[in-house]
Amino acid sequence: MAAALTLGAEGVQIGTAFLATEESGASEYHRNLLHSDAARYTTLTKVSTGRLGRGIRSRYTETLAGRNDQLLPFPLQNQFVVPLRKAAADKQQYDLIMFWGGQIAPVLKHTSAKKLFESIVGEVQGFLK
């Protein structure tokens, strides 16, 4: 966050860092994935919702790579994928699911939202001095 502010950003988005915490609504598998080497490999895709987003590469995202123009628009793509995603999760076929994950995932270290927030506040206070 301090680096982004130093470079002139007026704000930052911190979704992935909070998604990887125990308090998030993400599944245990997803949180563990965000803290694994797999998180180094992300892709921009519309396969999950119909809107462009960054997720961790999987067989699912790779199979549909380059076919964004063939997907349903938001929110129809998400409605179409929900039962498929649930069936894949129920059968633990996680390679058939797109898990959200930003470019920051390879350096995540916090599993507690409180500790993450305290770290962010400390970093920003240091930046503002």
From TrEMBL:
Q: What does the record give as the organism's lineage?
A: Bacteria, Pseudomonadati, Bacteroidota, Cytophagia, Cytophagales
Superkingdom classification of source: Bacteria
Identify the Pfam families for this entry. Answer: NMO (PF03060)
Q: From which organism does this entry originate?
A: Dyadobacter sp. 676
What InterPro entries does the database record attribute to this sequence?
A: Aldolase_TIM (IPR013785)
Q: Which GO terms describe its molecular function?
A: nitronate monooxygenase activity
Q: Write the protein's name.
A: Nitronate monooxygenase
Keywords, sorted A to Z: Monooxygenase, Oxidoreductase
